[in-house]
């Protein structure tokens, strides 16, 4: 790995334009169909998702605190956006859309406030299993909502569970040609990894092949226009102003809160994950990135777009395609602008069922069965938190689900410590400087509730040549704490240092994984 970091700003534009332009264009090929599909699934016009990505690329890129993340609409916010349009519009989809745009614009200002207050670091407070449960539930919701679109059938059910139970009836009511397009697209997405053409797969994303396949089959079958993407008559007419008429209502602020919390959480987690993929291991400024996303959301809402986040699928593709700087995100937004402005007719040939297939594939990746198995291996306690978050998210909404997961995590930790409520949050950290290096001693119970304090204490150790974390007096180290210590240890070793971790000898792990919660049963 080269130790010479890529240049930033205008110097980076000149020095790395070839790699960034290539990565940005390849991300654009993935982003285009996903922007359309996410927008339609959210109850917004198809063009709204493109507006979001254009703003995220052209406006947000220079401001963002992350160098390699891609900003745009996300599948993770589909369920909130769809519910906002439905509840605010009360049966009038057009009115609901404009009221929802006001929510998006206000959400951006709230996120700017989060950034000013430097709340980006609080992303670590949310227990890992609750976050994974939230994302898995979002995946299930996406799958349930897109199955009728995939088959070209009109559903009767409204909730995700009802739609899943209605699947046999949807199959019987399916439009044959539209279903062939959707199922063929879905089969291609799942089977792409098994194709033997390694060089071809490395150069061509599966989403592009699905687009070509979908347009080809749609033209062959002469699909009904209702099964195809609809765009405004002109580029300029695609921009819509929000309606702030319900800004004083509780419903508006409910969705502002949901977008702000879930969107910020998912965006910051993505930025954190992308930092781990960056070959140069550059660390993002979480609060600066949240500020940029907030400003982008306000502009997106004012122009007619969806809320944006740092999106994980496009961001990981950006890294894998060799992006060096923030300019790759800019190029992806520029490519979208040029395409929709110059070639709108091609977009209107895309079958909705092909877009549904891409979203179902995205939903499957969020709710992959392997995630259930790996969570169980971490420990039964984490599986309970994971499942409770999923169930209550499906039954109620995302906010109820994530906070239920946090509450269950806390109660399970109280149970593990024999019902001693105060013991869960009672922890002491002693830092000493010794000749052999920094020495941090942990005493008491360490959980997500005090992880921010622990993280602040361990941060200076990342640059130490030698350090010790002595947890032999700890009564509990939960999964989130174990992940934090492991991450710090990894960063120290990557900087050619050494971090020695001493765990309680009589602590009992609650799972088979090395990062399982450890509790001293005394």
Describe this structure in words.
- It contains 22 helices and eight strands.
- Helix 8 (176-191) runs antiparallel to helix 10.
- The protein is globular.
- The longest helix is centred in the first third of the chain and has 33 residues, at 9-41.
- Strand 7 and strand 8 form a beta hairpin.
- With 522 residues, it is α/β, with parallel strands linked by helices.
- The chain has helices at residues 9-41, 46-59, 78-89, 93-116, 128-151, 160-165, 167-173, 176-191, 198-203, 206-221, 250-277, 286-303, 312-320, 327-342, 344-347, 352-366, 369-378, 380-395, 398-416, 421-425, 451-458, 479-494; strands at 70-72, 309-311, 427-434, 437-446, 466-477, 498-502, 507-509, 518-520.
- Strands 3, 4, 5, 6, 7 and 8 form a six-stranded mixed β-sheet that branches. Strands 1-2 form a two-stranded antiparallel sheet.
Number of strands: 8
Mean pLDDT: 91
Query: Using only CA atoms, what is the Rg?
Result: 24 Å
Number of helices: 22
Extract low-pLDDT stretches: none
Structural class: alpha/beta
- Bin the strand percentage: 5-15%
Task: Give the overall shape, derived from the CA principal axes.
Answer: globular
State the major sheet.
Answer: 6 strands, mixed
Order of helices and strands: HHEHHHHHHHHHHEHHHHHHHHEEHEHEEE
Helix fraction bin: 55-70%
Distance between the termini: 47 Å
């Amino acid at each position: 790995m080269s130790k010479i970091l890529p240049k930033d700003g205008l110097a980076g534009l000149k020095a790395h334009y070839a790699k960034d332009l290539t990565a940005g264009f390849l991300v654009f090929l993935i982003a285009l169909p996903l922007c359309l599909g996410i927008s339609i699934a959210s109850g917004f016009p198809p063009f709204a998702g493109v507006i979001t990505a254009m703003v995220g690329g052209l406006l947000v890129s220079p401001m963002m605190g992350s160098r390699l993340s891609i900003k745009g609409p996300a599948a993770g916010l589909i369920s909130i956006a769809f519910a906002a349009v439905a509840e605010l519009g009360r049966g009038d989809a057009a009115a609901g859309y404009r009221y929802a745009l006001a929510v998006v614009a206000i959400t951006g200002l709230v996120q700017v406030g989060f950034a000013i207050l430097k709340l980006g670091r609080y992303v670590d407070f949310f227990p890992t299993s609750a976050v994974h449960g939230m994302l898995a539930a979002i995946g299930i919701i996406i799958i349930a909502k897109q199955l009728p679109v995939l088959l070209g059938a009109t559903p009767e059910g409204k909730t995700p569970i009802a739609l899943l139970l209605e699947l046999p009836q949807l199959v019987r009511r399916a439009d044959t040609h539209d279903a062939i397009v959707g199922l063929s697209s879905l089969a291609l997405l799942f089977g792409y990894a098994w194709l033997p053409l390694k060089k071809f797969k490395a150069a061509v994303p599966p989403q592009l092949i699905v687009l070509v396949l979908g347009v080809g089959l749609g033209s062959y079958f002469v699909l009904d226009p209702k099964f195809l993407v609809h765009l405004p008559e002109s580029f300029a007419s695609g921009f819509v102003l929000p309606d702030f008429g319900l800004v004083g209502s509780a419903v508006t602020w409910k969705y502002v809160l949901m977008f702000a919390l879930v969107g910020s959480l998912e965006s910051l987690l993505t930025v954190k994950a992308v930092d781990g993929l960056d070959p140069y291991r550059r660390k993002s400024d979480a609060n600066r990135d949240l500020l940029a996303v907030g400003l982008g959301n306000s502009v997106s809402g004012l122009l007619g777009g969806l809320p944006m986040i740092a999106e994980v699928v496009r961001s990981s593709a950006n890294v894998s395609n060799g992006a060096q700087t923030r300019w790759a995100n800019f190029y992806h937004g520029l490519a979208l602008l040029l395409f929709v402005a110059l070639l709108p007719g091609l977009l209107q040939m895309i079958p909705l069922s092909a877009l549904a297939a891409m979203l179902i594939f995205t939903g499957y990746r969020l709710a992959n069965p392997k995630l259930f198995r790996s969570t169980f291996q971490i420990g039964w306690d984490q599986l309970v938190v994971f499942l409770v978050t999923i169930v209550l998210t499906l039954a109620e909404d995302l906010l109820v689900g994530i906070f239920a997961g946090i509450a269950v995590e806390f109660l399970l930790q109280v149970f593990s410590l024999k019902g001693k409520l105060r013991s869960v949050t009672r922890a002491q950290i002693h830092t000493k400087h010794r000749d052999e290096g920094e020495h941090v001693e942990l005493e008491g119970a360490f959980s997500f509730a005090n992880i921010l304090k622990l993280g602040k204490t361990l941060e200076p150790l990342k640059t130490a040549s030698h350090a010790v974390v002595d947890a032999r007096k700890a009564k509990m180290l939960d999964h989130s704490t174990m992940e934090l210590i492991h991450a710090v240890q990894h960063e120290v070793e990557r900087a050619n240092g050494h971090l020695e971790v001493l765990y309680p000898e009589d602590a009992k792990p609650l799972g088979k994984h090395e990062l399982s919660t450890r509790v001293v049963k005394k």
